[in-house]
Every structure is written in structure tokens, then in C-alpha cells.
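Input (structure):
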């Protein structure tokens, strides 16, 4: 039996998590769910966006499912802090075209590997009323570690190329280390092609030639921005899952936020949450079931009959979930 920490968070996080649990209850794998709080509602209740009890639950689990969290003014991001506490240093974001969805191209299939623990998301900021500073922390250790994840993932996917994203022409020291670390690791994978692009050029190439990329590795902020841009190529954030992987922990979450404008309306797309659960199952060694879930999602989307408003339909969040489950069982 797998121990799964469930942190629904706020807004549509609760709705898509309910659907995710509904699906997991229908498959032939035993789970034990333990629930933790995080986010804006949690802050209003407990005075913190990420309670110690939630961290304890997450740390003793086999994997963590996270829904979404609403930004709390003046407070640190609970998901960023949770990633740091669990030391899940690699954020994996697959980008794939789906039949039946309006995509930029039909042959998009790459993954962004984003460093998850430092960069501008280190949340080290200071200053006075006239000048504010944010520290961008880039270390050789973290840069080489994330590059190794990218190359290993490239091998696992049976792909042939890893692309490094940076801005070393301006950020000569920090991104200089990131780029240098990438090529240091590349020496151990001579059978894999390598290339690197400045982040602004990469943002353009994702629009003009997304079919040419296999695995992309980037620092924290760059990876975050490029991931959301890439989701727009293939149907939006409702189809964008992610996994946060470390040496001892795995945290899985949809890329979308808490979407307070549609919270409570039961119209959020559950696919990104369900696909994140599929990534969790693959992480746990349940690859066959993980692939079955992905296939079921693809079939429901391709049929164009049951889909949420973001994809042009009028089905509810649970309607789509039940259609996916029907394909599974």
C-alpha cells in the first residue's frame, strides 16, 4: 500500500483533487491517503501557508499530490517552500500535442526540466522604500544535478537531444555557471546531442519550431516561464501536468493555479491533475497503470464529446473524470 499525502490547497485545487482521488479509488492499486493543509485558506485559519504538520505528513509519504494554492500577500509561497523542504530539485513538465485539441502543431512532444531549489525563486529579497533587491542564487552543484536529470530523462524517453537555456551573455557569472555545468555533465553522455540557446531566443523557437526539441533544461524562473508558454502551444494549462522529483521524495501537481474566478463552478479541467497522478504512479514504479491513465485521457480528449469549457465544451469537472475512468475500467 502506498502512503500518499494529499494537499488540495485552494480554489480549483480542491475540485481537481477530488476528481483525482475518485480516479485513484477506481484502479487496482491500494493507497492510504493522509491530508494536509496549505495555501491562503490555511493561512486564514492557522496563520501560516504551510503548517509543520503538513510537512510531517509529506515527509513520511511515498509521494505527495498537491492541488493549487492562492497567493497570500506578504507570505512565502507554500508550494515553493514545500519543494524546498522535500528537496525535490527537479521539476519535470511534459508538453505534448493531443488529438482533438487545437495545438500549434500535431507533433509537439518534449519535456522541460526545471531546476527547482534556487535561482530568483530563492525568495531572498531585501531593501528599503526606494530600492529593492532579489538574490539570484545559482550553484554549480545544483546546476550539474539538474543537467544530469535532463540527460537521464532523455535516455529514458529514447530521445537524442538536450537543450540548455540560459542568458550567459548578460548574467555572465550565474548563467555562466549554469551553462558550464551543463556541458560538464554532457561529457558523460557522448551519444546525446547538445545545444544551448539564450532564453529570449528559446521563447521564440518554442513558437517557430517546437517539434525540434526533446528535453529542455533551464534554471528556475526561465523554466517556469517557458513551461507556461509551452502549455499554450498544446491546449493550455488544463492539459499541463508536472512532477517534482528528488532523491527521496516526489511531489506531483498540475501546472495551473487556483483559478479563483472559476472556483466552485465545477468547470475546471481535471486532466492536468489526473496526468500529474499518472506521473506519480510512474515514479512509484506503476508504469503500466500510469500509461493506461494517459491513454484514457488521450481517448476522452480525442473523442471531442466530453470536455470542459477551456477546451470548448460544456461538461463539468467530474463529468470529464468519469469519462476517463470509464475508459480505464
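Output (sequence):
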Amino acid at each position: 500500500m502506498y502512503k500518499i499525502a494529499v494537499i488540495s490547497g485552494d480554489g480549483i485545487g480542491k475540485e481537481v483533487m477530488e476528481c483525482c482521488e475518485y480516479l485513484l479509488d477506481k484502479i487496482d492499486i491500494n493507497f492510504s491517503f493522509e491530508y494536509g493543509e496549505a495555501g491562503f485558506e490555511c493561512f486564514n485559519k492557522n496563520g501560516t501557508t504551510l503548517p509543520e504538520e503538513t510537512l510531517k505528513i509529506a515527509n513520511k509519504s511515498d509521494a505527495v499530490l498537491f492541488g493549487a494554492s492562492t497567493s497570500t500577500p506578504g507570505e512565502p509561497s507554500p508550494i515553493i517552500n514545500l519543494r524546498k523542504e522535500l528537496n525535490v530539485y527537479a521539476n519535470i513538465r511534459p508538453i505534448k500535442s493531443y488529438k482533438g485539441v487545437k495545438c500549434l502543431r500535431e507533433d509537439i512532444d518534449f519535456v522541460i526540466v526545471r531546476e527547482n531549489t534556487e535561482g530568483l525563486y530563492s525568495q531572498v529579497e531585501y531593501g528599503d522604500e526606494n530600492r529593492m533587491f532579489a538574490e539570484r542564487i545559482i550553484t554549480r552543484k545544483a546546476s550539474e544535478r539538474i543537467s544530469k536529470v535532463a540527460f537521464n530523462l532523455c535516455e529514458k524517453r529514447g530521445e537524442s537531444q538536450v537543450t540548455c537555456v540560459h542568458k550567459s551573455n548578460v548574467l555572465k557569472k550565474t548563467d555562466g555557471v549554469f551553462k558550464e555545468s551543463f556541458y560538464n555533465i554532457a561529457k558523460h553522455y557522448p551519444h546525446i546531442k547538445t545545444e544551448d540557446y539564450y532564453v529570449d531566443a528559446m521563447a521564440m523557437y518554442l513558437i517557430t519550431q517546437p517539434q525540434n526539441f526533446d528535453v529542455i533544461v533551464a534554471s528556475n524562473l526561465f523554466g517556469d516561464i517557458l513551461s507556461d508558454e509551452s502549455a499554450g502551444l498544446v491546449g493550455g494549462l488544463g492539459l499541463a501536468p508536472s512532477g517534482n522529483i528528488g532523491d527521496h521524495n516526489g511531489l506531483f501537481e498540475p501546472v495551473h493555479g487556483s483559478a479563483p474566478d472559476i472556483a466552485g463552478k465545477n468547470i475546471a479541467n481535471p486532466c492536468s491533475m489526473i496526468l500529474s497522478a499518472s506521473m506519480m504512479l510512474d515514479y512509484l514504479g506503476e508504469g503500466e497503470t500510469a500509461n493506461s491513465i494517459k491513454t484514457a485521457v488521450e481517448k476522452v480528449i480525442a473523442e471531442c464529446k466530453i470536455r470542459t469549457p477551456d477546451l470548448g465544451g460544456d461538461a463539468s469537472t467530474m463529468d470529464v473524470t468519469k469519462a476517463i475512468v470509464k475508459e480505464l475500467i
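Notes: The chain has two domains: 1-88+240-329, 104-233. The longest helix spans residues 140-157.
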